[in-house]
Amino acid sequence: MAVFNDAGKNTSSERLGQIGEALIAKELKQVDKCGFCGKILRNVYLPKEDGSTSEIDLIYITTRGIIVIESKNYSGYIYGKESDTYWTATLIGGGNVKKNRFYNPVAQNRSHIKYLREYLQDGKIPMFSIIVFSERCVLKDVSITSHNLGICNLSCLHEYIEQIWEQASVKSLGDQIDRIYHTLLPLTKAGKSEKQKHIDAVREKYINNEICPLCGGTLVERSGPYGSFWGCSNYPGCKYKKPSSCKKS
Asked: Most buried pick, 29, 116, 121, 160, via CB within 10 A?
């Protein structure tokens, strides 16, 4: 899921997010042909203790563990550290600089793995986190320190999975692949109401943190003929706005 295609009504962004996930799934199928012997799941909605859901973009269940993939379909230069709360995508063109913030994808995927372990009720299965960015961006200044974690452009996904394969324990999970797959498969069949509930929760989280849910710009308070409202710092490129009363203080 692209960061903002689940947080607003930006149709083009939503379509880009779907394309990004489809490209990753296609690449995983090519990886599978190289002898990795896995099963792929997309858009897995895991239940959380508060009744909400955590959506995993792609899960690749292999004989050496579960690879949890977060898709980020951005353009521009990407900046971020593993310890940062937010990362930044910076677009430069026509003499203009546009900066879009988004939640730290490393922390985001760490949360996904937490809820995945809880759902499977198995703390022994090796799990690996990979953040995959589109080919339209450059990982300009990105730093990580954790084990079992990779960040790459789509073209390097195969290489990262090979590294995981070489470093992971050779103990086979072959007899568990089908069981795990069929346990998680029902979570890919979320209905419209459940998906909308997830969208609304993500949208509210962004707004409450003064982030535009459509593009990742900063929400700033402005005044208009009908009163004050929260608008996007990337206006006029982004025309998102909400009455001031819609944002928590």
From this structure: 116
Res 157 pLDDT > 50 = yes
Radius of gyration for the chain, computed over Cα atoms and rounded to the nearest angstrom: 19
| 175 token code pair | 């007899």
Instruction: State the residue range of the domain holding 228.
Output: 197-246
pLDDT of 218 over the 70 cut: yes
pTM, rounded to two decimals: 0.78
CB-side exposure of 74: number of CA atoms within 13 Å?
32
149 in Cβ contact with 126 (< 8 Å):
no
Smallest Cα–Cα separation from 66: which of 6, 120, 128, 119?
A: 128
Burial label for 19, CB within 10 Å (0-12, 13-18, 19+), is middle
Q: Is residue 123 domain-shared with residue 175, that is, in the same domain?
A: yes
